[in-house]
Amino acid sequence: MFGINKKSFIYRLNIQLSIFVTMVIIIAISSFSYYISKNQSQEISKQLRHEALVIADHLSVSNAAYVVTKNYTAIEQILMKTGKFKNIKIIQISNKNGKIISNIQKNETGDIYPLFDVSSIEVPTGKDILIQYSGNNMVVFQPIMLGDVIGWVKLFYSLSNVDDAEKNIWKNNTISGVLLILILEISFLILLRKPLSSIKRYTKFADDLDGLKGDKVNVDDSSTEMLMLGDALNRTSYNLKEQHNELNVALDNMELIAAIVENSSDIIVSINKNFKIEYMNSAARNKIEELFGDCSDDNVKNIFPVQMQDVIDKCVFKKRNVEGLESIVNESSFVWKFTLFESQEVIHCHAVDITEKKKIEKILKDSERLYSTLFNSANDAIFLIKDEIIIECNESAMKMLGCDSSGILMRSYKQFFLDEMRVRKNRVATISSYMDDAIKGISSAFEWKCICCNKNLFHVDVNFNVTAIDEKQFVLAIVRDITIRKKTEKRLIYQANYDRLTNLPNRNLVLDRLRQSMKLALRVSSHVAVLFADVDRFKKINDSMGHGAGDILIKEVANRLQSCVRDGDTVARFGGDEFLIILNDVQDISDSELIAKKALEAIAEKFVIHGQDFYLSLSIGISGFPDNGLEAIDLIKNADIAMYKAKDAGKNRFQFYTSDFDNQAKQKVQMEAELRHALERSELYLTFQPQINLKTKKISGAEALIRWQSNILGFVTPDEFIPLAEETGLIVSIGEWVLRSACEAAIKWQSLFSDELRVAVNVSPRQFMEANFSQIVQTVLTETGLNPTKLELEITENLLAENAQQIVAIISELKDMGVSIALDDFGTGYSSLSYLKKFSFDILKIDRSFVMDITNNDEDASLCRAIAALAQALNMEVIGEGVETQEQLELLDTIGVDLIQGYYYSKPLEEDAFQKYVKEFRV
């Protein structure tokens, strides 16, 4: 077809492919040979360098002694043996100044013989190995060391192996490359014979494609590429024939479309980008002649919208169609649509005459304006409904539903009323049933819930009435928003049943819920648990911080308690700082233990009010239905009794109600009576537990601990009688006795021991907060004569939540006297760094609960380490309590604890035993 010499083309293709393959192979083999030779050369060089260094090092080590002893014969023997290595050419041994001691050389035949024509060599100045290269030789200078440099080994090592390896690689690869080129050339000639024949046939077929006959060529399937090429030629032949047929059909269609456009009643005009008229149909010509008298270009342009230049810009440059524009000419109105046809570079303009439609719309608007004014003046929402579809609504309806008419009209009225069922006159009523009643003429005034367009619900009064308009039946729905009325009703009900501060059920509602829970439990044979919770020490916080802070704490306590219970359980505020929890449908009263523990943990977490940290705890009493009462009042009363038992046990815990509480109450009364006379009967006594200084390994003091041996009750533990003394106030007089007795004991120790020992006395919160506590301490120190620096007063973290200002003042007075203040049981109560900053403590005591597991509990060990570091940073002493093993002692010593006390050294001892222990003490 194009006059190509096919034979010369095939010949050139063969030659070009052969040259290409040959060049590729040559480049590949050259690159590969170069890469391999370089890598192998480097590897051989590296290996030879390593061999030379090893040989030089061996010569240095083996000849060191002979150089010192000047045993030249031995040196020469070593050199003669070493010279047998293949690549060694010369070995020279010199003293440290370069004077030759021994010198051998190997000739080309491998014979080794000594050299006598060199008497000295130039040696390096330092002590390091030196490597030099000279032609194909590597020269190594290896120092001979014996403490210092005593001589040098100079080794000439041949590198000729590297060049030999490179030459062999190039030679072998060249031979392989020539053979590979010959093989590939022959293979290409054989493989290309059939594809080239197919290409000839395909080329001839392509020349004949312009006949548009749709013929097919025989496809060569010997390779995927030839198969694809044959298929492509066949598809091209078929597609050319089909396109020719489609083109004929398109021409027929264009003639039909042209006839339709010309005879259309709509105005159709075509313009180019310069606003030149290219075409207009009969309807356009008739309308322009009607409006202007003739169809001049200016008259044609006057029928278009005034913003035509913008239209042309959008169509031509932004490739956007434009529609909806209107033009008004001599009271005639037209609406336009503009479409760009890029292939023809014209804009087709289509206009519809809407003059009559505009006149009808104006008449309708005028007639509706009066109706709309009356319709929209109503305060109630009004909907006109036909076949369940809202066809009209007033402005009040739109305002009530919160959307415009487009969100209301042509929608089902059911969309705006809650789909629910109610009981009405002994039958189930729905919004649809009320509508059906209205259509039947039955009064349909009722209360329902309406749905805003934003899906919010609100209460409404609804009245459905049937009305007729133009002999058609409609339902007129009048709807009134009663949200304010409902809120008022709800507020009154809420105020009667809920606590205003916490929004929890109050006493009135919780009693009703408890009774309902009890009835349900009887029906399903389950239990109900009642938890009576009281916030410990809340009154003190409320009095010290003000009722505003107290209210915030109560609200937060309420929130935390609610997070602890299950769905369906009740948390109520019973009054003040008391809360009642009702647990429904429990299988056993003991199941409430989990909730009680969660409540204790939740309240134990830190509260932050106005930037200040607070720590609270709960005392919880638990009673169960039906085991602990069959009346709601009895269940609450018994839970209250159990709560007070929890407080007696130390607070921050829960207690199940048991019938034994009456007997326990009697025992408590008896213990109180005996405790009131314990001092006058001399039933109280002190024990002393030594405190050991880990730095000096000496006893530095002791902690005074009170004990009670009652004539009636026998031995009573401190855990039993000290809380009772706190509760009754007896702790004040008992505490003063302990302080005085401890100071008197310390005075005795001064006369018995050379080292003055410090005595530590525990002070209860109630005793510490007495108005004259500082004065009592001063009086005791004065009367006993004890140096104030030898008195340590220990207070617990629980005290720190009291009146902070008063505590700071008392501590300041005591420190002014010289008394040391220790914070006992640090980390077990209301620990806070702010306390350490606010209160000037001298000593921190690590509680025994942390020390007990310090060797096998990483958390306890980390906590003890942190406490010690904190104390050191604040210049405070650290005392570890409860030390019982050597491992505990060593670990505490490691982390920086200053003093320890515990059974590892001694249990608490009575005074005589303590004095004996101090005299005999040895670490």
Automatic annotation (TrEMBL):
The keyword Membrane applies. This is Diguanylate cyclase/phosphodiesterase (GGDEF & EAL domains) with PAS/PAC sensor(S). Residues 526-659 form the GGDEF domain. It holds the Pfam family PAS_9. Keywords: Membrane, Transmembrane, Transmembrane helix. The chain crosses the membrane at residues 15-36, 174-192. PANTHER family: BIOFILM ARCHITECTURE MAINTENANCE PROTEIN MBAA (PTHR44757:SF2), DIGUANYLATE CYCLASE DGCP (PTHR44757). SMART domains: EAL, GGDEF, PAS. Coiled coil: none annotated. The keyword DNA damage does not apply. It comes from hydrothermal vent metagenome. Residues 668-922 form the EAL domain.
